[in-house]
Design goal:
Elements: H1 3-9, E1 33-35, E2 38-39, H2 51-63, E3 68-72, H3 75-83, E4 91-94, H4 100-108, E5 116-118, H5 125-130, E6 136-142, H6 154-161, E7 173-177, H7 182-185, E8 195-199, E9 213-217, H8 220-233, H9 239-271, E10 276-280, H10 290-296, E11 303-308, H11 312-321, E12 326-327, E13 337-339, H12 351-357, E14 363-367, H13 373-383
Parallel strand pairs: 4-5, 4-6, 6-7, 7-8, 12-13
Antiparallel strand pairs: 1-2, 3-9, 8-9, 10-11, 11-14, 13-14
Helix pairs in contact: 1-9, 2-9, 9-13, 11-13
């Protein structure tokens, strides 16, 4: 089946008991048993599994063209589950410009296990390969990255990793955070990745009303390890959140096309506005990795970053001038959101790291919603009259 059909139907068949077209919200903490060790159905305790979560995991696996999916209470909970695959003294190669929450998790939580993070100078597959060490267990990347929308060649990186073995005799696992493109526009497992993570809070949920995360894998052994962690640690989404995510998945293909359409129009406006110093948008023909966009993506999310001329005072004035666009954390909702990465999404990074990565005080990240693009552009035009 094609993607739009999968998004509507996978994991979302009518309920066999009532005929309900939407998967019911299974608000129960436990399930009756017919005797010791005799389950009445598939489920025993809702932390371990729940009909609503089970249906959601089928849906997420299907839209990523993967074999197994696991749902979590947040994107960070999903990332933490992946990091639980590590042992003390292991090392990670992480591409530059990762989400600030991932940076915080790597450097301020897992550092107590002496987990070392190696970051290449750029995102070329060769640079990533050269950053590997005998202790490298994971290669962690975002493509496009948050917030500067850098890409890296997932397929070529995966191919290079096949030729490397660490001191345990293992190939490092390639982990891709696919939150920005969503499964509608990029499928890393088909490109050779081992693990895909999502903050489902963003495009998969798509309505700014739920916090959740997910992991998708093909390998049975990796899945069993992650499934064990999911049950043991218990950071799972509630059934209502699972219902909301499935509702979001049904409209994901349509929403992503509108996000993309608006992003192109807004990015073009920003590039031609004299108050804007630079625009970061992979859809531009002169974007350094534009050819890679066409190679591994079928579309672009509604993400744009740009630098306005001047200092932080200009940025504050610009934010104050917005009437329609909302200054807030997160992205991927129906409303257009804007944020200041240096003090919001990437506040956990030291100033020296921000400077090295180009996350300056005049950098702004915009998540184009699904409103009328003309209204959004008019709002930006008024606010940029600095």
């Amino acid at each position: 089946m094609k993607f739009s059909t999968i998004a509507v139907h996978a994991g979302q068949r009518p309920d066999p008991y009532t005929g309900a077209v939407c998967v019911p919200v299974s608000l129960t903490s436990t399930f009756a048993m017919d005797g010791i060790g005799q389950l009445r159905g598939e489920f025993e305790y809702a932390r371990s599994d729940n009909p609503s979560r089970h249906a959601l995991e089928i849906s997420i696996a299907a839209i990523e063209f993967g074999k197994h999916a696991l749902a979590f209470a947040s994107g960070q909970a999903a990332s933490t589950a992946v990091l639980d695959l590590l042992q003390p003294n292991d090392e990670i190669v992480a591409t530059p410009n990762i989400y600030g929450g991932s940076y915080r998790l790597f450097h301020k939580v897992y550092n107590k296990y002496n987990i070392k993070i190696n970051t290449p100078n750029n995102t070329t597959p060769l640079a990533i390969y050269n950053a590997l060490t005998p202790k490298t267990t994971l290669v962690w990347g975002e493509s496009p990255s948050n917030p500067l929308l850098d890409l890296f060649d997932i397929a070529e990186t995966a191919e290079r990793l096949k030729n490397f073995r660490n001191e345990k005799g293992e190939k490092p696992l390639l982990v891709i955070d696919n939150t920005f493109p969503s499964p509608a526009f990029q499928n890393p497992l088909l490109l050779g990745a081992d693990i895909v993570t999502h903050s489902c809070t963003k495009y998969i949920g798509g309505h700014s009303d739920v916090i959740a995360g997910a992991i998708v894998v093909n390998d049975d052994e990796i899945y069993e390890k992650l499934k064990f962690y999911q049950n043991a640690a218990g950071a799972v989404p509630g059934p209502l959140n699972c219902f909301l995510l499935q509702r979001g998945i049904r409209t994901l293909p349509l929403r992503m096309k509108k996000h993309e359409e608006n992003a192109y129009k807004i990015a073009d406006f920003l590039r031609n506005n004299p108050a804007v110093e630079k625009v970061f948008f992979p859809g531009f023909e002169d974007f350094p990795q534009h050819e890679l966009v066409k190679k591994q993506m079928s579309g672009l999310p509604g993400m744009i970053s740009f630098k306005i001329r001047g200092n932080i005072d200009n940025v504050k004035k610009f934010f104050a001038g917005l009437k329609l666009i909302i200054l807030a954390e997160s992205l991927g909702g129906p409303e257009t959101l804007i944020c200041h990465p240096a003090t919001m999404t990437h506040a956990a990074l030291p100033d020296s790291e921000k400077e090295k990565l180009g996350i300056s005080d005049n950098l702004i990240r915009l998540s184009a919603g699904i409103e009328d693009a003309e209204d959004l552009i008019n709002d930006l035009k008024d606010a940029l009259k600095l």
